[in-house]
Amino acid sequence: MALTARLGKPGLLRGLWGLLIGIAFSAALDIAIRAAYGYDPLVDAEAITIVSLLVAPFGFLIGIGAFSHWFYWASGKPTQPEDHSSHGAKSWKDYFGVNTDHKVIGIQYVVTSFFFMFIGGLLAMLVRAELAAPGQQFVDGNAYNGIFSVHASLMIFLFIIPVFAGLANYVIPLMLGAPDMAFPRLNALSFWLLPVAGIMMTASFLVPGGSFAAGWTAYAPLSTSMPLGQLFFTVGVQFAGASSIATGLNFLVTIITMRAPGMSFWRMPLLVWANFSTSLLVVIATPFIAASQFFVLFDRALGFNFFNPAGGGDVLMYQHVFWFYSHPAVYIMMLPGFGIVSEVLSVKSRKPVFGYRMMAFSLLAIVLLGFTVWAHHMFVSGMQGWIRVPMMVTTAIIAVPTGIKIFSWLATLWRGVLTLDTPMLFTLGFLTMFTLGGISGVVLAMIPVVIHVSDTYFIVAHIHYVLYGGSLFTIFAGVYFWFPKMTGRMFDDTLGKVHFWMTFIAFNATFAPMHVIGVQGMPRRVADYPEQFATWNLVISISSFVLGISTLVFLYNIVSSWRGGPRASGNPWKSLTLEWQVTSPPPVFNFDRIPTVVGGPYEYGVPGAVHGTFTPAVTAQKTDPPPVAASSGGSGERE
Amino acid sequence: MAAPDKNLPDYERLGISDRKTPIGPLLAIATVASVLGIALGLLIDWFPIAASEQAGPIDTLWDVLIICSVPVFVLVSTVVLYSVYRFRQRPGEEDKDGPPIHGNTRLEIIWTTIPAVMMLALCVYAYVVLRDIEDAPAKGTKTLNVRVVGEQFTWTFFYKGGDGKDVASPQLYLPKGTPVKFTIQSKDVIHDFWVPAFRLKIDAVPGIDTSYRVTPNREGRYPVVCAELCGLGHAVMRQTAVVMPPADFDAWLTKKASGDEGAAGGGTAAGAAPGETDGKTLFTGVQPSCGSCHTLADAGTTAEVGPNLGESLKGKDEAYIRESIVDPGAKLAEGFQNLMPPTYGETLDPAEVDALVEYLLEQAKG
User: Fold this and answer.
1) Check: CATH 3.90.420.10 for A99-564?
2) Cα–Cα distance between A405 and A416 in angstroms, integer?
3) What is the pTM of this model?
4) Which of A356, A432, A447 sits opposite B76 (nearest CB)?
5) ipTM of the complex
6) Sign, CA torsion B169/B175/B176/B182
7) CB pairs < 8 Å spanning A and B
């Protein structure tokens, strides 16, 4: 292909051009404005960088073609509503462009998130190397603060939140009996916002003054007085957040309108319920973190006074707005995992999920209560004292719906026929480890205790029991569980078990001692600590390196199994839910015939029970001109 | 098709594994494990030394939380492990399902109600403890007011002298047995004033005053820690709280308030031994210590927050060194930001500054 044609074709190369044009535009705009105001110097690299952070990503997104269809439509050019030219992947190269197939996007999401998980993990290794002994080992205070800030930001915004969105992207339309998500082009844009955010946050290390170093919480006024690197977080979060919101909306519309005939809300698998609840949280809460970071951007870049008391600003306001998102965000990072656990436990125990309706109601209860507990992060912030007590009560009470879920899962295990393979081991690991994280969560509701342990390693221990022992264990369970569906290959179960046991043991050896040193008085986010904590920190660092190595076992297993694992059948786990009733991997439009749902999703042990049938035979997609009966079936899916 | 075996129960014929199991043994195991777990949890030496009246109720609340938490964790783990042992798939069961149990309303009500009641009870208890530790002392009790000012990266403690004037100290001195009310302020970003031995902390927030009360009840020296990330010197923002007999405290405050700042050895302001004028000792003895940020081979310090004084002071004169101590922002070493506390001119007495300057001048030459 001629060079000019290649440059003009939507793709990464044109994306690069778009990026450069975006930067050039930002520079020109900045210089023009400075010239108009008569500012000196005319060229201010920092100002150009800030404008570029906001503008250049759009150049990239337009370049790769994420907006093409809408632009054609808006400019009145002929467009095909059913344009499937960018749907489905024929070779690995199709994964590096804009693709509207939810299965391609799902894999793009999962692989990209794991890429940033490995970067975040390396940063964690650096943190532990520095903390292996008191005093300074490898990095100074500024670099250290930058490393843990980027570690947390990548793990939260580029790994846990999007990897769940990726798994759900792949599985949910299949579970619903739908051919794709409701808005496939929006879905593609949602994905491509992610690498933008991830590269921005990672690239902050290259900026003069170092990466953003005010923690992932970016409390003002520390964040508003930081060097340029801080804005790579401030703006990066906007792109990650926009991606989340768009995906959340997409899931809500898909789940509400695209269920197969017969798929009532009370016949939906709990993973669908979980992502329905998560999407509600995402859509309602995420705008708040966007707001908090725009405030920081205005203060830092334009000299506003939102958080400057000398200019009438209010420092505590930042924390209220920030935590109004960031507490629900903990549930955004946990509820999809609850869904995965329900799926895996039921299939691997060969029993229906115990108390299905209560499981769904407890998800909704968590959504509701999740918005009433944010100030428990602020018990020592100096806010008005009375609000602490109601927030303590709601925080403790949110353990009740969570407890219902734990007990119902235990009852699902009871008297089942348990298959103890890798996905099941991670699920059982989750049950025990998340319980510990939940218990320390209740401890952290009790104001008098929090006054002592807030901002200590006890908090670090708690958050890792929740997000590693909780979320990450379910992510591993989910990746192993749906790996055959996604790739058409089986993973190596022995290596999977090695991965589990290494992870489980090293995880506990790493994070359990942090409870103790936290209560003993070691604050979090310090590059140096007194001699009295040296022994435990050395133990923690060594364990964390083993934990780091355990993820390499996972990586090797996934890569080698994807390349040459044994072929997987359509339904290797003998599951009843719809995604397992098609081939592995599924056809481009998921179902050659639209399924009709006739019962609950987990009727294991009920003789002859099925969740969905493919009779009467209804052709689902446009392979043939649809007969009259099919169009009524087809519209049924969009009831 | 072979005739169904009449001896098998219905569920076996249907390929379902019944596995009815008494829960008695499970509960016995869980109870024993809980008792052992609670014992272990209470044996762990969780807290640092307690040096305030407020620490007692908090530590007791912690023990109660351990006693409530351990059985929950043990119960969940025991059910998981017992299920793995008892219900795992055995050879010949590859095509078997479990019994189709969809739920049990009574059980679900029980495991909703019991945790809810337990949570509310814990909240009530925690509220009582909170009132206990935050209540103002009875009217007429003498309270010491201390204003605590945080800045990057040091604390300064202000007392009211006899004449109503502020008396500044880089080290926190407190009389044993007297209720103290701290009023906490910040000059720049958010800090957090925490004395682990007192169990209490609160943020120092720019623009507003925050406060808490504490009654120290044990003599000794305890670390004062900044618990909120405040920038690159956050880890070294550590000072000392000294709890002393009330008479000693009064003597110290009177001396400090009326102290002739010109007189050598006028106080223990620097936190080093009273009247210390050995520059090398002061280098690591002042609060916050020079050595916690600066490398200086002779003093044996290796920190890299600020410039390496062995190099940056080479060839500098006395005036430069003196200015760098009392007004560190005036001239900055290349590549370093203005992060050093500007408080040394105020908190060190002139003799101590002289001693430091003299010592550093020696190093600059050598």
Assistant:
1) no
2) 17
3) 0.89
4) A432
5) 0.89
6) negative
7) 269
